[in-house]
Amino acid sequence: MTPTAFDERRELAHRTSDGIEVTLFWSKATDRVMIAVFDSHTDEGLEFDVGRGAALDAFNHPYAYAPHVTATTAPSRGWVQTH
Protein backbone atom coordinates (compact mmCIF):
# COMPACT_ATOMS: atom_id res chain seq x y z
CA MET A 1 0.00 0.00 0.00
CA THR A 2 1.38 3.39 -1.00
CA PRO A 3 0.99 6.16 1.58
CA THR A 4 -1.08 9.13 0.52
CA ALA A 5 -0.92 12.77 1.62
CA PHE A 6 -3.82 12.00 3.98
CA ASP A 7 -1.80 9.21 5.61
CA GLU A 8 1.17 11.47 6.14
CA ARG A 9 -0.69 14.06 8.20
CA ARG A 10 0.53 14.69 11.71
CA GLU A 11 -1.92 15.50 14.47
CA LEU A 12 -0.61 18.56 16.28
CA ALA A 13 -3.55 19.10 18.65
CA HIS A 14 -6.95 17.59 19.37
CA ARG A 15 -9.82 18.55 21.65
CA THR A 16 -13.41 17.48 22.24
CA SER A 17 -16.17 19.51 23.84
CA ASP A 18 -19.89 18.68 23.90
CA GLY A 19 -19.60 16.28 20.97
CA ILE A 20 -17.53 18.65 18.80
CA GLU A 21 -14.07 17.32 17.89
CA VAL A 22 -11.45 19.76 16.63
CA THR A 23 -8.12 18.57 15.28
CA LEU A 24 -5.14 20.54 14.04
CA PHE A 25 -3.11 18.71 11.38
CA TRP A 26 0.10 19.37 9.50
CA SER A 27 0.83 17.55 6.24
CA LYS A 28 4.46 16.65 5.68
CA ALA A 29 3.82 15.90 2.01
CA THR A 30 2.17 19.24 1.21
CA ASP A 31 3.50 21.38 4.12
CA ARG A 32 -0.08 22.55 4.77
CA VAL A 33 -1.80 23.19 8.10
CA MET A 34 -5.44 22.10 8.34
CA ILE A 35 -8.30 22.19 10.84
CA ALA A 36 -10.81 19.33 10.97
CA VAL A 37 -14.10 19.72 12.85
CA PHE A 38 -16.53 16.87 13.48
CA ASP A 39 -19.92 17.14 15.20
CA SER A 40 -20.89 13.74 16.61
CA HIS A 41 -24.45 14.93 17.27
CA THR A 42 -25.17 15.59 13.59
CA ASP A 43 -22.50 13.32 12.04
CA GLU A 44 -21.24 16.29 10.02
CA GLY A 45 -17.70 17.50 9.57
CA LEU A 46 -15.53 19.87 7.63
CA GLU A 47 -11.87 20.39 6.98
CA PHE A 48 -10.10 23.49 5.78
CA ASP A 49 -6.61 24.92 5.35
CA VAL A 50 -5.41 27.64 7.67
CA GLY A 51 -2.37 29.89 7.59
CA ARG A 52 0.50 28.94 9.88
CA GLY A 53 0.29 32.21 11.79
CA ALA A 54 -3.38 31.61 12.60
CA ALA A 55 -3.21 27.87 13.31
CA LEU A 56 -3.55 27.98 17.10
CA ASP A 57 -6.27 30.63 17.02
CA ALA A 58 -8.14 28.65 14.36
CA PHE A 59 -7.83 25.53 16.50
CA ASN A 60 -9.38 27.38 19.43
CA HIS A 61 -12.05 29.15 17.31
CA PRO A 62 -12.57 26.96 14.21
CA TYR A 63 -15.95 28.37 13.18
CA ALA A 64 -14.48 31.86 12.97
CA TYR A 65 -11.99 30.60 10.38
CA ALA A 66 -14.14 28.07 8.53
CA PRO A 67 -15.16 28.93 4.99
CA HIS A 68 -18.89 29.36 4.55
CA VAL A 69 -19.93 25.95 3.25
CA THR A 70 -22.75 23.55 3.93
CA ALA A 71 -21.50 20.38 5.59
CA THR A 72 -22.84 17.08 4.32
CA THR A 73 -23.63 13.92 6.19
CA ALA A 74 -21.42 11.08 5.06
CA PRO A 75 -21.52 7.38 5.88
CA SER A 76 -18.06 7.10 7.43
CA ARG A 77 -17.17 10.37 9.10
CA GLY A 78 -17.12 12.01 5.71
CA TRP A 79 -15.64 15.44 5.64
CA VAL A 80 -16.47 18.45 3.57
CA GLN A 81 -13.06 19.49 2.35
CA THR A 82 -12.48 23.05 1.22
CA HIS A 83 -9.36 24.66 -0.21
Average pLDDT figure: 84
Q: Cα-atom Rg, whole angstroms?
A: 12 Å
Output the number of helix runs. Answer: 2
Overall structural class, as computed from helix and strand content, comes to: mainly beta
Order of helices and strands: EEEEHHE
Low-confidence stretches: none
Word description of this protein:
This protein is mainly beta. The protein is 12% helix and 40% strand. It has helices spanning 55-60, 62-65; strands at 9-17, 20-27, 32-39, 44-49, 80-81. A five-stranded mixed β-sheet has the order 1-2-3-4-5. The longest helix has 6 residues, at 55-60. It is globular, with a radius of gyration of 12 Å. 17% of the residues are buried. The model has no long low-confidence stretch (mean pLDDT 84).
Topology:
Elements (H helix, E strand, L loop, with lengths): L8 E9 L2 E8 L4 E8 L4 E6 L5 H6 L1 H4 L14 E2 L2
Parallel strand pairs: 4-5
Antiparallel strand pairs: 1-2, 2-3, 3-4
Features of the shown structure:
5-stranded mixed β-sheet, 83 residues, single chain, 2 helices, mainly beta
In short:
With 83 residues, the protein is mainly β.
